[in-house]
Each structure stands twice: as C-alpha cells, then as structure tokens.
Amino acid sequence: MIQGKTALVTGSTSGIGLGIAEALARQGAHVMLNGFGDSQGALDRIRALGARAAHHGADMSKPAEIEDMMRAAEREFGGIDILVNNAGIQHVAPVEDFPVDRWDAILAINLSSAFHTMRLAIPAMRRKNWGRILNIASTHGLVASAQKSAYVAAKHGLVGLTKAAALETATTGITVNAICPGWVLTPLVQKQIDDRAKAQGISIEQAASALLGDKQPSLQFTTPEQLGALAVFLCSDAALNVRGVAWNMDGGWVAQ
Ligand code: NAD
C-alpha cells in the first residue's frame, strides 16, 4: 500500500527519478525530491498531482550532506518508507585516459550514496517492519560496454549491494531490489547522442537511431513512465516476495 507512505527519490529533478517520483505521487505517496537544476519545476509537478513534496539539495557524493537530507526527511515527513536510489552521472573514456576525479565522482554518486542512504534508512524501516528500497542500476549493472569502466563498476557494485541488503532483510517487511533500464531518453543520454552526432558528423536523429541500433533490439527508448510503473509494482504488497532481483527493462539489451 503506497498511499500515505513517504518516498525519497534521489536525483529526481529530471529524467528517470522525476518519472518515478511522479508515479509514486499518483499512488498517494508524499515525496522528498533531491537533485540539482530545476527543483521548483519538479516540486510543481509533484504538487500538481496532489502530493505533499519537499526538496533537499544534498550533493550525493558527500556523506555529511546525505545525513542532513535524511534528517530533513525525518523532520518533514516523519521518516522514509520508500527509498529510491537514482542519482547518477556518466563519463565516457578508456581506462587509461579516465580522469581520476571522474572515477571517484561516479563511484561516490552512483554507488556509495546508496550505501549511505540505505544504512540511514533501514533502522526505521526495521522498526516499522515495512520498507521498499529500489536501486536504479542499469543494463550496465549486468553487462559491460567499452569506455564506461567507472559506470559499469559502480552499477555492478550497486546490484551486489542490492543482493546483500536483500538477504539481510529477507525475513522482514523490507524488500530491496534493483531496476536495470536500457536506453532512456534523458539529459544523461542526450549528451551521449549529441557527442556522437558531433564526432561522426551526423544528425541528432541519426545518432539516436545508431545508439539504439548498437544495443537495444526493440529500437525504442524505455520511458520514465514505464520505469515508474515498474517501481509502483515493486512497492506494492504483491511484490513482497520479490527480493534481491536486478530487473531489466531494456528492449532486449541483455537477452543478446
Ligand atoms: P538525468 O541526468 O536526467 O538525472 C540525473 C539526476 O541526478 C538529476 O536529478 C541530477 O540533478 C541528479 N544528480 C546528479 N549528480 C548529483 C549529485 N552529485 N547529487 C545529487 N543529485 C545529483 O539522468 P537519468 O538518465 O534520469 O539517470 C537517472 C539514473 O538512471 C542514473 O543512476 C542513471 O545511471 C540511471 N540509468 C539511466 C539510463 C538512461 O538511459 N538514461 C539507463 C540506465 C540507467
């Protein structure tokens, strides 16, 4: 039952995080948003659905700021029932040229931040004997692509963290699962399309088709709305015994 629960969705000012936040708000959840950029626009979209919403601008690479955000959620909503670890960044380069600061940032934002939010959220979930933790990994949590070493390492790590925490909470009302999207047309992927168009001297449309053709047999982007619907299912009572999975929604990417 999602109605009346509080969801914290990290990195929810755009893209997949905002799509999941909206889907949970439609089911009657209160939402704590996080992320950079247009926080007012995201707040307006959630409130337009009739949900209570707040925003905290914690930088997910900074444990002290994450702790502050978790305390703010406690003050504002009395704690977190649904935790969606979604904030993430990408950088593309071969291992030998990978900037060390980008490696550190990707590991901190895409992996360690989920450890911090989970270690801080699980005690109260245990007391209520109810919780849902969704870690937004990627097909890159299951298979690799060249030039994405930090992202692939972080996302494989996030799937491993998901499984370990699912085992630790297996006899409780807390479930921990990962969602592994293939290509979703968000600012994170638009940048890769723009870079490809520039490098190959082709149009944006041609670059988007080539990107899908490389990896995603359906030749269609997964949408934030579809991922929101999967998140709603994983938060439902029917999903109580779905534990420790890494559920891909990827147009056939990892079936190949
Ligand atoms: P996006 O760029 O639209 O959104 C990323 C969000 O994270 C934004 O709200 C941004 O402000 C926030 N963010 C970035 N750095 C942050 C930081 N240090 N602290 C707090 N917030 C920060 O990207 P997206 O495509 O919606 O990605 C969301 C998640 O989905 C990421 O974890 C990404 O790896 C994953 N994912 C995306 C795709 C895809 O094709 N777009 C595929 C698989 C997985």
Question: How would you briefly describe this protein structure?
Answer:
The protein is an alpha/beta fold and 256 residues long.
Q: Could you say how many structural domains there are in total? A: 2
CATH superfamily of the largest domain: NAD(P)-binding Rossmann-like Domain
Largest sheet: 7 strands, parallel
Enumerate how many helices there are, as a single number. 8
Strand content: 5-15%
Tell me the series of helices and strands, N- to C-terminal: EHEHEHEHEHEHHHE
CATH topology of the largest domain: Rossmann fold
Please identify the structural class as seen in this structure: alpha/beta
Question: In the CATH hierarchy, what is the class of the largest domain?
Answer: Alpha Beta
Poorly predicted runs of 5 or more residues: none
Radius of gyration: 18 Å
Notes on the structure:
It is a single chain. The radius of gyration is 18 Å and the shape is globular. Helix content is 48%, strand content 14%. With 256 residues, the chain is of the alpha/beta class. Bound molecules: nicotinamide-adenine-dinucleotide. The site of nicotinamide-adenine-dinucleotide has 29 residues, from α1, α4 and α6.
